[in-house]
Amino acid sequence: xxxxxxxxxxxxxxxxxxxxxxxxxxxxxxxxxxxxxxxxxxxxxxxxxxxxxxxxxxxxxxxxxxxxxxxxxxxxxxxxxxxxxxxxxxxxxxxxxxxxxxxxxxxxxxxxxxxxxxxxxxxxxxxxxxxxxxxxxxx
Amino acid sequence: xxxxxxxxxxxxxxxxxxxxxxxxxxxxxxxxxxxxxxxxxxxxxxxxxxxxxxxxxxxxxxxxxxxxxxxxxxxxxxxxxxxxxxxxxxxxxxxxxxxxxxxxxxxxxxxxx
Lengths: 139, 113
Hints:
The complex is a heterodimer of chains A (139) and B (113).
Chain A: E1 8-14, H1 17-34, H2 42-61, E2 71-78, E3 81-88, H3 111-118, E4 121-127, E5 130-138
Antiparallel strand pairs in A: 1-2, 2-3, 3-5, 4-5
Chain B: E1 4-9, E2 15-23, H1 28-40, E3 45-49, E4 53-56, H2 58-73, E5 77-81, H3 85-93, E6 102-103, H4 106-110
Parallel strand pairs in B: 2-3, 2-4, 3-5, 5-6
Antiparallel strand pairs in B: 1-2
């Protein structure tokens, strides 16, 4: 495959919560239309659910007060595998990665456990002052 | 798109709370507020009509758990109706479908309440 060429590609930067969530869901809608998938296509629906979780974490925790750096987002499809990349400038997230699904009474703390279950791969690395997230799923 | 929440009273006196939009980290506070309003008015019997909810995330799910706790704490009862496929996936993945059975339609949820 040629570098820089993807079957589908979407890129955006955003800074606000609702704006960012809208863009994430719009990108999945575009991918759905571009690939002729139905609205209830299960693999893409599972991916969108995971993206919503990581996206809301990044938008909620990835913009420390006083930081103007936007969140960078890319969505790509290659050979039937969809990959989303998100980068933010929040605190390191290592300690949260292995969080288990909490009990039924808990009102929070399920997002990362859900995303891990829904994806083939959830990648995370700390790159200087930046968190880089990588969400991978075979469609 | 902000979550909009409509509240109405069905013929049998049950309160139907109907959110429309994404029940996510941005929309969850609106549902919590609507449920709190209903709980203020005595022992609540509530159906959350999920038909207009296009997407649920873990924070949105947290607002439903919060609603369930509030309602049970007020000797009331809460039922969930008409979740779409994505919402059902989230309920099943978190095994909350075991503690929070849902109904296919609002009419079913209202029957025998």
